[in-house]
Amino acid sequence: MAKPIVRKMFPGAVTSQGFYSYYNYIIESDALHIFVIKGGPGVGKSTFMKKIAESMLKMGYDLEYHCCSSDNNSIDGLVIPSLRVALLDGTAPHIVDPKNPGAVDEIINLGEYWDESVIQKAKSKIMGCNYRNSRYFQAAYFALKEAQIALEEWEFYVKEFQNWQAVNQMTLNIEKMIFPAGKGGNGKERHLFAWSHTPQGKVQYIDTLLNDVSTLYTLEGQPGTGKSTFLSRIAERGIAYGLDVEYYHNILEPAKLDLIIIPELHLAMSVVSEPYEYTPKFSGQQLTLDFDQSVNKAGLADFASDIEDCRERLIKNIGRAIKNSSRAKATHDLLETYYVAAMDFPAIEKKRQEIEDRILTMIDLGIAVNAPGTALPDKI
After folding, report:
1. DSSP 8-class letter at 28
2. Are 4 and 61 in contact (CB under 8 A)?
3. Each residue's pLDDT tens digit, 3-44
4. CA quadruple 156, 158, 163, 166: dihedral positive or negative?
5. pTM of the model
6. Which H helix or E strand runs over 358?
7. What is the DSSP string of 47-71?
8. Checking CA distances to 236, which of 3, 19, 47, 255 falls within 20 to 30 Å?
9. Residue 221 and residue 225: Cα distance in Å, rounded?
């Protein structure tokens, strides 16, 4: 049996616009079952999902880990694509509104397993942690707004000296090269993040997303050279051709793209340049598109010192945001201790086993129908 594949991505991110969520795209609307897990910090939501993930991996199922943007060691969601089953953290800021309560969406409230009298004794400390945590995140958002201003100024200088006719021609050439003639339709979009500003720094798991990709285009070039616009055009053309496209958005400015994947073509395109540099560990065909190549460098040289100032401000403020995310994480860790002391973890483990058994029952009864193009693994 082939080793199961684990893809990692972020459904939400700390951005210049605050916390930005694509939680509605974690699993498609035709999901068989969605378990929405509620409960305060420290109640074991991430551990609950990870343990079920371990069991599914042993059985050979491919998984998606939807990672937490505020904690590298936690997950906000687990998807078993071939079963169309998901488990999601449903607490703020990961607001998940059940679309089909009772029929598809089911709420698991881990708050039922705490001793409220223990929590009440720590009430003032809990409120203090929540207050400080909120301010640290707000400070991170302010820092990213400053970083965004620096990035926009940098782009302002560069755009004037880009040869947009050359970029448009390159775009047309790539479209003709990769898209099948005569195909049309209306593909599906999926929107997520490949990067995150975490307490441990800028983090990405792009290599895990490329397991089924045979051709990777890497996009080089400084801000303002048209990389995100290029990705948007290719993605839109793919949708128009009836191809499904995964959109991975920029964590500083979510309106822009860092990465697109077109599964049917086994093709991906990724920005690899600052401020979110990425060096792929990729064994397939890798092609480089250099967007700096068509820039009038002589004209741009007049603004070299301004651009360097933008770069320094950009790096500095992303660093400020990460520092405040780290402070928020430390506060959140303290907050968790007040809840951990009140939890009945054996009861939660019993509930977890119950949910795992129900998922296995779905498989045994043939209720969990595999998604198109996939096969259910043989159980060990």
Report:
1. -
2. yes
3. 899 999 999 999 999 999 999 999 987 888 999 999 889 899
4. negative
5. 0.92
6. helix 345-364
7. HHHHHHHHHHHHTT--EEEEE-TT-
8. 19
9. 6
